[in-house]
Amino acid sequence: MTAGETAGAPASGYQDQVAQICDSYDNDPHRMLDILRDVQDRFRWIARETMQTVAEKTGLTQIAVEGVASFYAFLSLAPKGRITIRLCDDIVDQFAGLPEVTESFEKALGIGIGETTSDGGFSLEYTPCIGMCDQAPAAMINDVIVTNLTPEKTRALVAALKSGKRPEDLISPDFDDLTPHQRAVTMVENNIRHAGAVLLGPAAPDAGLKNALDLTPSRIIKELEDSGLRGCGGAGFPTGRKWRFAAETEAERRFVICNADEGEPGTFKDRVLLTERPHLLIEGMTIAARAVGAREGLLYLRGEYIYLRDLLEEVLADRRARGLLGDGIMGVDGFDFDIRLQLGAGAYICGEEGALISSCEGLPGEPKTRPPFPVTRGYLGFPTVVNNVETLCHAARILDRGSKWFFDMGTEGSHGTKLFSVSGDCLNPGIYELPYGLSLKELLEMAGGEDAAAVLVGGPSGAMIARDTFDRKLTFDDLATGGAITVFSKDRNVLEIVEYYMSFFVHESCGYCTPCRVGNVLLQKAVAKFREGLANPEDIAYLKDLSGTIIETSRCGLGMTSPNPILSTLENFPLVYSAMAKPSKDRIRDTFDIQSAIDGARKLAKRRSYVFDRDFSQ
Questions:
Q1: With pLDDT > 90 as the criterion, what percentage of the chain qualifies?
Q2: CA 529, CA 519: separation in Å to the nearest integer?
Q3: How buried is residue 219: exposed, middle or buried, by Cβ count under 10 Å (0-12/13-18/19+)?
């Protein structure tokens, strides 16, 4: 849409332009997400007439097209402003000053959250974690990231945009002259606090790939198995075993997919690798292709990281030009492999490998029923290896330095190094690459978070740990984590944090299965009762029973882990719940409001309660 058009008005040749977008993807229904993203970018929304044209061009029903368009948060069935401002509403951003930043945006734009200006110029909305927790509050302005927001900075940004500047001009007046890497690092600080020996230290370019060419596919996999490398997304499945399953499955085609959809709140490690080690990632994918016999790969990049798209496309083009991708890689006849970048569109559930595959296939990002597993029947029904960014980078380094080098780092059952994304109430938020086996206390000391009262390990699907257990080890067998370490001081309200994360899971559920779709809503409401001082002691048992039901009966990992914020805080912070629960009389709920009761004492003492205060912004 040009600057002179309003957000809802069809442009000249509207349907012809939609048809041209479809043609650019060969009218392939499996490219539906790409098609709809391009439509959204050009027209700022997806009209009913658009969906009809797309359906006709791709041979699908309009209902199928609408199913995709309505699933992803970054696609809209109603007009959006030419400039869409998405404020990250993660709990870390909230504690870092988001309410004041939001108020400043609303006043400057003259609209509230969820609204669009009457001239179609601006839309303002909230979005879940965008992977910038180390520099919160943060926002996306179209495809541009802005960080460390303040009310003053907000007013200046809006004034510049209203004067006609592009979002890109907010980053640098010479934005168009910067390289893709310069643009990325100008927008976002990577905050590498400790570079370890494997991923962020010195490495010879493509040394692992060169070594892989001298090995048989089976021997490459054996190197991975001997190294002890496990998937770095949190589940920890042995990487070599996954590759072997895919390699040994009879099939005409095989695929390698990189899961760069790190949507877990508090996680931003892959963002750093994508920026600073993109060649290492592509090298790892190429080695995986050599090992399993794949000719085709996909790099699934979360929509929030769209600012890295040009950088990654540049890397792919460079490697094709140097014979490191494409036909006859490094002069080896028959070693053919190339990678397509697939951009997501704002859906946390697509971090689950089945939902990610569905998204790559042009479908709503709904998990697939297992078995079969992706290694035997994945993308388009063919064997598919899905690994995240960190895992694939590790694989490249293992083929470079050898399995024993990697195995000797870390501890038994948890070998190598791990990237930790540390954020929240600490002096030095950022990325720490450290061997497995250090204690949480040691990591907090490095990050300046020694005074933490609570730490969320592994994001909301992980566990909230109390101060008396900070000696626990960061390993697969103790505190397993995909990398997120979120620090909370004694001034934070545990129940406020839990309620936020439950609202996050409610919002991000794909809605396929009832236990997850409905159960998480009930859990959120129950936590709200505790915060309001209206819960009974029996409600504690209710939380545990309902959580168990959701875990046992949900279809995918989201529902299996969504009760964790409640279960881990019930275990590690039991007094927070028991202090807020009071008996009811004759089965009639007591209407006593603990918030009102302690309000006078709170004002007299000029102090706030870690246990009782519901809203610390008051």
A1: 87
A2: 15
A3: exposed
Structural domains of the chain ordered from first start: 14-69 (no CATH), 83-177 (3.40.30.10), 194-407 (3.40.50.11540), 422-488 (3.10.20.600), 508-592 (1.20.1440.230)
**Distance, C-alpha 492 to centroid of its chain:** 24
Pairing of strands 83-88, 122-127: parallel
Which residues, in sequence order, are bridge partners of residue 533?
A: none
In sequence order, what are the residues at sequence separation of 6 or more whose Cβ sits closer than 8 angstroms to the Cβ of residue 615?
A: 493, 496
Q: 122-127 and 139-141 as β-strands: parallel, antiparallel, unpaired?
A: unpaired
What distance in Å separates the CA atoms of residue 392 and residue 339, rounded to the nearest whole number? 14
CB atoms within 10 A of CB 370: 12
User: What one-character DSSP code corresponds to residue 482?
Assistant: S
Question: Hey, what long-range contacts does 363-366 have (CB within 8 A, 24 or more apart)?
Answer: 363/32, 363/67, 363/68, 364/67, 364/68, 364/71, 364/72, 364/510, 365/71, 365/72, 365/510, 366/510, 366/512
Q: For residue 509, give the DSSP letter.
A: -
DSSP β-bridge partners for residue 296: 255, 338
Distance in angstroms (rounded) separating the CA atoms of residues 116 and 125: 9
d(CA 222, CA 240): 7
For residue 182, give every residue at least 6 positions away whose Cβ sits within 8 Å of its Cβ, in sequence order, or none.
Answer: none
Strand partners, 297: 256, 339
**Scanning the structure block, which residue is given the tokens 């907090």?**
444
Residue in the block written with tokens 């009762």? 529
Looking at residue 591, its pLDDT comes to 46
Angle between helical axes of 14-24 and 48-58 (0-180°, round to 10): 40
- According to the model, what pLDDT value does residue 555 have? 83
Helix, strand, or coil (residue 385): strand
For residue 559, what pLDDT is reported? 86
- Is 395 exposed, middle or buried, given 0-12, 13-18 or 19+ CB atoms closer than 10 A? buried
DSSP class per residue in 180-235: HHHHHHHH----EEE--SSSSS---TTHHHHHHTTS-HHHHHHHHHHHT-B-TTSS
Query: What is the spatial distance between Cα 206 and Cα 12, in angstroms, rounded to a whole number?
Result: 49
Whole-number pLDDT of residue 596: 53
The half-sphere exposure of 187 on its side-chain side, counting CA atoms within 13 A, is 30
Q: Are 589 and 538 in contact (CB under 8 A)?
A: no
Q: Which ranges constitute the DSSP H helices of 510-593?
A: 514-531, 538-553, 557-561, 564-572, 574-580
> What is residue 449's predicted lDDT score, i.e. its pLDDT?
97
β-bridge pairing 139-141 and 83-88: antiparallel
- pLDDT of 599 reads 56
Rounded Cα gap, residues 138 and 129, in angstroms = 9
Return d(Cα 237, Cα 472) in angstroms, integer.
22
Radius of gyration of the chain (CA): 25
Secondary structure class of 295 (helix, strand, coil): coil
pLDDT of 339-374, one tens digit each?
A: 999 999 999 999 999 999 999 999 999 999 889 999
- Low-confidence stretches of the chain (pLDDT beneath 70): 1-12, 584-618
